[in-house]
């Protein structure tokens, strides 16, 4: 399993879960306990139906071609189809601006609900995010309860919930960063498996090598289902599953060990000040 590290002149945030993108905040909606985190209204479902036709027919193929997408592990989607049809949580690293479209293309025709940074839902394209299945993560504890209820409903409805467990997107970053535990709580509480997925890179070849600004090609690796250990209490089971899935995904990324992962992290430049460097 070849490990390709694309050249990068990015300066990454000091904190491993901090954001490196700048969002043009055009809207300032209130994401409180009254917000429809899982909108089941006829109006929303009607708009989303037609949006997804365009999204699936145009955006997804373009994303696939744009990054020379290769998918490894499709056999696992077939192997576990009956299980996945009962609802599941998938997790992945977050290293590509279009990774959501690439992910949807790889698992087509399934469509996910995916939590996102609340700031993304203030951008001019917030409607496109919403109709594609993106859900804002609120800030207040009361609103977070409603958000969690909506995400649990996704699973109970036997649908697909995808979570970027690194919390923020870092362009062209190869090492696997520490994980947040939300995805594993949802899996434990709903007694469903985790499907680990890893974005990896390949060196541009063929027609892709002709371009001056060469973006790396993308391979998506789909792993084996992972289940919570119900012999442990909830807190320890969530922590154990989080650590287990991260170790598995490090291996899926072509990285031999946590030690090598740490060494790879030293290859990059990081912001050493308190001033944000945004792209």
Mean of pLDDT: 91
Task: Provide the CATH top-level class.
Answer: Alpha Beta
Q: Output the radius of gyration.
A: 19 Å
Poorly predicted ranges (pLDDT <50, ≥5 residues)?
none
Query: What is the total domain count?
Result: 1
The amount of helix comes to 25-40%
Beta-strand percentage? 5-15%
The secondary structure category is: alpha/beta
First-last Cα distance: 31 Å
What is the global morphology? globular
Q: CATH topology, which one?
A: Glycerol-3-phosphate (1)-acyltransferase
**Element string (H = helix, E = strand):** EHEHHEHEHEHEHEEHHE
Q: Can you summarize the main beta sheet? A: 7 strands, mixed
How are the strands of the biggest sheet laid out side by side?
2-8-7-3-6-4-5
CATH architecture: 3-Layer(aba) Sandwich
Quick one: how many beta strands? Answer: 9
**SS field, number of helical segments:** 9
Topology summary:
Layout lengths: L10 E2 L29 H25 L3 E3 L1 H6 L1 H4 L3 E5 L6 H8 L5 E5 L9 H7 L1 E3 L4 H16 L3 E5 L17 H9 L3 E9 L14 E6 L11 H19 L5 H8 L3 E2 L9
Parallel strand pairs: 1-9, 2-8, 3-6, 3-7, 4-5, 4-6
Antiparallel strand pairs: 7-8
Helix pairs in contact: 1-4, 1-5, 7-8
Summarize the structure.
The chain has helices at 42-66, 74-79, 81-84, 99-106, 126-132, 141-156, 182-190, 234-252, 258-265; strands at 11-12, 70-72, 88-92, 112-116, 134-136, 160-164, 194-202, 217-222, 269-270. It is of the alpha/beta class and 279 residues long.
């Amino acid at each position: 399993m070849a490990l390709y590290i694309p050249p990068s002149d990015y300066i990454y945030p000091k904190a491993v879960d901090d954001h490196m993108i700048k969002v043009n905040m055009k809207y300032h909606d209130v994401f409180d306990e009254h917000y429809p985190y899982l909108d089941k209204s006829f109006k929303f479902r009607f708009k989303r139906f037609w949006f997804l036709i365009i999204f699936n027919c145009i955006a997804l193929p373009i994303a696939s071609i744009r990054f020379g997408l290769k998918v490894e592990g499709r056999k696992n989607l077939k192997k576990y189809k009956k299980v996945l049809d009962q609802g599941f949580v998938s997790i992945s690293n977050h290293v590509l601006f279009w990774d959501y479209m690439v992910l949807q293309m790889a698992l087509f025709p399934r469509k996910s609900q995916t939590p996102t940074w609340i700031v993304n839902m203030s951008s001019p394209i917030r409607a496109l995010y919403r109709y594609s299945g993106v859900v804002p993560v609120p800030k207040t504890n009361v609103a977070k309860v409603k958000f969690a209820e909506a995400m649990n409903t996704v699973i109970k409805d036997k649908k697909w919930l995808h979570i970027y467990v690194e919390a923020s997107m870092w362009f062209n970053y190869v090492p696997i960063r520490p994980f947040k535990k939300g995805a594993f709580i949802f899996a434990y509480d709903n007694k469903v498996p985790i499907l680990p997925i890893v974005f990896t890179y390949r060196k541009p070849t063929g027609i892709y090598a002709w371009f001056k600004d060469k973006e790396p090609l993308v391979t998506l690796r789909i792993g084996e289902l992972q289940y919570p250990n119900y012999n442990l209490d909830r807190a320890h089971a969530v922590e154990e599953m989080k650590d287990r899935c991260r170790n598995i995904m490090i291996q899926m990324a072509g990285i031999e060990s946590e030690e090598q992962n740490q060494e790879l992290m030293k290859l990059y430049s990081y912001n050493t000040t308190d001033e944000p460097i945004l792209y």
